[in-house]
Every structure is written in C-alpha cells, then in structure tokens.
Specification:
With 157 residues, the protein is an alpha/beta fold. 30% of the residues lie in helices and 35% in strands. The chain has one domain: Rossmann fold, CATH 3.40.50. Pfam families: Pribosyltran.
Length: 157
C-alpha cells in the first residue's frame, strides 16, 4: 500500500534518508524552529518527530489522545471519518510565540492535523509548517489547513 511507511521504518538506511530529506527541507526553509510537535502516539508519524528534532538540536513536544498526558492540559475535539476524537497537549509545552513544525506520517482528510494546529493556536505558538511524508490528495486534507504552510514528500491521488 502506498500510504504505509512501515518498510521505511524497518530499513535503517531508508529511514536515515527520510530524516535527512526532512531535515534538509526544514533547515532550508526556516532559520529558527523551537520545537517539533508530533501527533498521537498511535501514529507512525510520532516515530519521525523525535529523531528529526534531535537532528535539528531542538525539543520534541507530543500531542496525545485525551487522558494520556500528566499535569494540566489543553484539549480539542475534532471529527474523524468514523466519529469524534480528542487531542491534548500539556498546557506548558510551548510558550507564547514559539515556532513549531507539526509532523505526521500521513495526511488524509486533515482532521487530526487541523486539531493539532488548533492546540498550537490556543497555546499561542506559531505554526511554521505542517509536514508529512505522504499526502492523499484525493481527500483534500491540505485544503482544510487554509493559511498554514504545508509540505509533503510524496503525494498520491
């Protein structure tokens, strides 16, 4: 399946090349990034954020499903193709005006990515870009992001 990144994760050389490509893109595009933000621990995209943040010498901030993070949190509910869900971030994860890039493995309908952007907006962070490995263009998820810059390595119709 073209939307499965599991083979990339199994192959250390391919995974290194993937992180190289994402690192090169971010270094060329943004002179300053404070944090890489990753969505949901159940998402394979969560596996991309920490090594990318480490390469860039910056921190990684997790966004999780409701009830998974300790301490005070900010939450947002959103609609999925098959129902509703909620995402949370720790209330002190980012500070006013900090610059973040949100990463995930795949953009489909855009609901989860929009929810992550809403959490960043509530914490008053600046979303520099939403970055994914694969975009399923037929589902038009990137159109929901409106004015937020979006980048995908691969696009499939």
């Amino acid at each position: 399946l073209c939307s499965d990144i599991s083979p990339l994760l199994k192959d250390p050389g391919a995974f290194r090349t993937l992180i190289d490509l994402l690192e090169d893109h971010l270094r060329a595009s943004f002179p300053q990034i404070d944090f890489i933000v990753g969505e949901r621990l159940d998402s394979r995209g969560f596996l991309i954020g920490p090594p990318l943040a480490q390469r860039l010498g910056i921190g990684f901030v997790p966004i999780r499903k409701k009830g998974k993070l300790p301490g005070p949190t900010e939450s947002v509910s959103y609609t999925l193709e098959y129902g509703k869900a909620e995402l949370e971030i720790q209330s002190d994860a980012v500070e006013l005006g900090q610059k973040v890039v949100i990463v995930d493995d795949l953009l489909a309908t855009g609901g989860t990515m929009c929810a992550a952007c809403e959490l960043m907006k509530r914490l008053k962070a600046e979303v520099l870009e939403c970055l994914v490995i694969i975009e399923l263009k037929l589902l038009k998820g990137s159109e929901k992001l409106k004015s937020i810059p979006f980048y995908s390595l691969l696009q499939y119709d």
